[in-house]
Amino acid sequence: MEYGIMYSKVPDLTLCGFTDSDWASSLDDRKSVSASVFTLGSGVITWSSKKQPMTALSSTEAEYVAATSAACQAIWLRRLLAEVNQEQVGATEIFCDNVAAISMSKNPAFHSRTKHIDIRHHFIRDLVAEGKITLEYCSTHEQVADILTKSLSKEKFCYFRSMMGVRKFELREGVEY
Questions:
Q1: Tens-digit pLDDT profile for residues 117-145
Q2: Origin, by domain of life (predicted)?
């Protein structure tokens, strides 16, 4: 109860995302979990962790599906921010720790190695080509979305929690929270 998200004034309100998946993590049906985290300024504003609707045939496919889902969320957030006069200039960066998924998002050609992936998941390619989204690499050690996909050591959990802007508040006597 003593933890919360502390938002502070920052000079630049830039939307930034992180996406990850945990390939075939469900022991019952071998479906993967997609996760995304979006920050704006000093703290997290939205996060999601959800089982994918289909069974991914590779870790790259699971990451690509997760990235496409995060890109859709980013587009919705960009539209919402524009409505409140916080229009985002340039592409929204979404960080991913899978180089192959990033390469697939930047290559508009369909290849035999990706033809099994449902066409709707290739929507991210259009967003990248239009300059609305950019999928960038980040090390797994900096992948904030890991907090929503897998078990972590206490140190890593605390590190990612702080990257999300979650802080411990001092409880004051006589004040209800």
A1: 555 556 788 888 899 999 999 999 999 99
A2: Eukaryota
